[in-house]
Amino acid sequence: MIHFHIVTLFPESIEPYIKSSIIGRAIKTKKIKVSFYDPKKFILLRQGFAGQARSQDIRVDRKPYGGGPGMVLRPEPILRAAEKALGKATGNRQKAKVIFFSTDGEQFDEAMAKKLSRKKDILLIAGHYEGVDERVAKILKAKKVTMGPFVLTGGELPAATLIDAVARFVPGVLGKAESLEASRVASAEVYTRPEVLAWKGKKHRVPKILLSGHHAKIDEWKKSRRAS
């Protein structure tokens, strides 16, 4: 079983997806486990005059040094949340993989997903706003990962995407092992009934080769469509 630990300000933004469909079933059957750690719950208040908490201590974000737009997530709440997560590691916490989502990280792909599926614990740091203080990644010795050449408003979608992609390689998560794209003859085009779809005055037919029953030729067609 893989235990995914997600440090995020907004667990409610991805919980519905994680708990539904194939991933939700994988959690129920204990093929994978997902835990959330909200940095807002890891703010330690320092008392100022008259026992009042100082305003800067109750915020999870602060203005960036050197100027610039937006706010940066403070390192202390993130690190405390990460420590809490690592303390609950299924295996050896020293072997847990820490992922730090960043635009300058390594491109996430199928090979990385397969490699991560061999881990017992994966800690995902989902940043928000202008990002997370860089010292967090250095202290946790995190691997920087990007989902693509674009910028998102937060790390929650990347976290959900990574969990989905990695979970597919966990035995028993998919209904059949052949469902893995790399282990089956598949194409980008798939069809089902009806054989002839009548839509707005036009007829759209399933490719004849798929109706032929000639499995060798069907596989050849699928390979050609996949390559294209």
C-alpha-based Rg, rounded: 23 Å
Query: Mind telling me the CATH class of the largest domain?
Result: Alpha Beta
SS strand fraction: 15-25%
Major pleated sheet: 5 strands, parallel
Tally of DSSP helical segments? 7
Give the N-terminus to C-terminus distance in angstroms.
Answer: 36 Å
CATH architecture of the largest domain: 3-Layer(aba) Sandwich
**What is the assigned CATH homologous superfamily of the largest domain?**
SPOUT methyltransferase, trefoil knot domain
Number of strands: 9
Mean pLDDT: 88
CATH topology of the largest domain: Alpha/beta knot
**Alpha-beta classification:** alpha/beta
Number of discrete domains:
2
Strand numbers in spatial order across the main sheet: 2-1-6-5-7
Order of helices and strands: EHHEEEHEHEHEHEEH
Residue share in helices? 25-40%
Tell me the overall shape: elongated
The unreliable regions are 47-53
Task: Give a short synopsis of this structure.
The chain is built from 7 helices and 9 strands.
Please, could you describe this protein's structure?
The protein has helices at 15-18, 21-28, 75-87, 110-116, 135-140, 156-167, 215-227, and strands at 2-7, 32-37, 61-62, 72-73, 97-107, 121-125, 143-146, 196-199, 202-205. With 228 residues, the chain is of the alpha/beta class. The chain folds into two domains: 2-177, Alpha/beta knot; 185-227.
Task: List the defining traits of the structure above.
single chain, 228 residues, 2 domains, two-stranded antiparallel sheet, 19% strand, elongated
Layout of SSEs?
Blueprint: E1 2-7, H1 15-18, H2 21-28, E2 32-37, E3 61-62, E4 72-73, H3 75-87, E5 97-107, H4 110-116, E6 121-125, H5 135-140, E7 143-146, H6 156-167, E8 196-199, E9 202-205, H7 215-227
Parallel strand pairs: 1-2, 1-6, 5-6, 5-7
Antiparallel strand pairs: 3-4, 8-9
